[in-house]
Amino acid sequence: MAFIVIEHLTKCFTGPRGQVIRAVDDLSLTVENGEFLTLVGPSGCGKTTTLRLVSGLDNPTSGSITIDGRSMEGVAPKDRDVAMVFQSPALYPHLTARENIGFGLRLRKCPRAELARRVQEAGELLNLTDCLDRRPAELSGGQCQRVALGRAIVRRPAVFLFDEPLSNLDPQMRIQLRAEIARLHKRLRATVIYVTHDQGEASMLGHRIAVMNQGIIQQVASARELYRHPRNLFVAEFIGSPGMNFFKGTIVTESGWLQFEGQNSKAGTNSYPVKARCPERCAVALKGYVGKHVILGVRPEDLRHATDRKDIPHPESSILAVVEFIEQSAGALFLHVRHGEAALVGLARSANQVSVGQTVGLEFDPTEARFFDPTTGAAISCES
């Protein structure tokens, strides 16, 4: 196991027109001993560059990386006690699986008996014993990726770095290997940084998830914390499939209560504005926003189709919207609707109760809503 500390890490590249591109921007992150940290974010956000900096394949422009208190400045990749598994297995086609797994150990002059024992152990651990003597062309995609995992495992590194290792596999194989990686981590107890664009993968594997955008870490937390308490608009929209719904509006006072009044603009006028009484827990935080613009966020599962007005426990926080299409996802039925100019996603109870083109009622519980500052994008912190 290893303890990783990254402080103010920056990596700049020069663009085609001579402009400075900050691929990683003042990144600070701590990974605990034996922790499985997943790193997620959109394409080009700097995830892979961060891994390459930790592994030593790239050098930082500024900042520091320490592993178990040892500075990695000037330390070659082979001396960092890290192993990296890439998106592509990158196997030698003329070598067998057994030879590919043991190749790194052979370069390090590992004794032949010890090398054979470690390769055999890795093969058993990864269910590869029946195909250790086959070449890559004779293996499936999942088996090739297992061989790449085995090549990293036999080195017994302090840190494993995974760069989207399952993205080229079919969905069923991804699920299977995902579970195997989780079991491997539990058995090996190594420190892991795992890059993925798959949020389900990140949630299943990661003790914590670091969300990254434009080279900057936006938030590091558990999957549940990211989903229910996003730090800013980017995390709120990026985490979740579908992402959070947003309503622009103003905080006003009405009958002694703070209330959100939406602005759903259409043809220059307000159309079907959302109104919702602000939760008591948010009263202190939102008091300073009276008369000011805010953004209200509602998760799709909290924006529910109401078949009858009697089903709406919060009629003041309900809207009318037109169904554009219906999505079946993991046992849930999502309604993609149009509310004025806003495209929203809500949850339906049954496909038999809705149809495309139908105007439906949707309601949400304001106590489950989140509020954001439209200028900074930061979440407005409410007392729990």
Describe this structure in words.
- There is one protein chain.
- By secondary structure, the chain is α+β, with helices and mostly antiparallel strands.
- It folds into two domains: 4-230, 3-Layer(aba) Sandwich (Rossmann fold); 245-372, Beta Barrel (OB fold (Dihydrolipoamide Acetyltransferase, E2P)), CATH 2.40.50.140.
- The chain is built from nine helices and 22 strands.
- It has helices at residues 47-55, 97-107, 112-125, 141-153, 171-188, 199-205, 223-228, 233-238, 283-287, and strands at 4-14, 20-31, 36-40, 62-67, 70-71, 82-85, 159-163, 191-195, 208-213, 216-221, 245-254, 257-262, 265-266, 269-270, 275-277, 293-298, 303-306, 318-329, 332-339, 342-348, 359-364, 370-372.
- The strands form five sheets. A six-stranded mixed beta sheet has the order 6-7-8-3-9-10, with helices on both faces.
- Helix 2 (97-107) crosses helix 3 (112-125) and helix 2 (97-107) runs parallel beside helix 4 (141-153).
- The protein starts with a strand and ends in a 12-residue tail after the last strand.
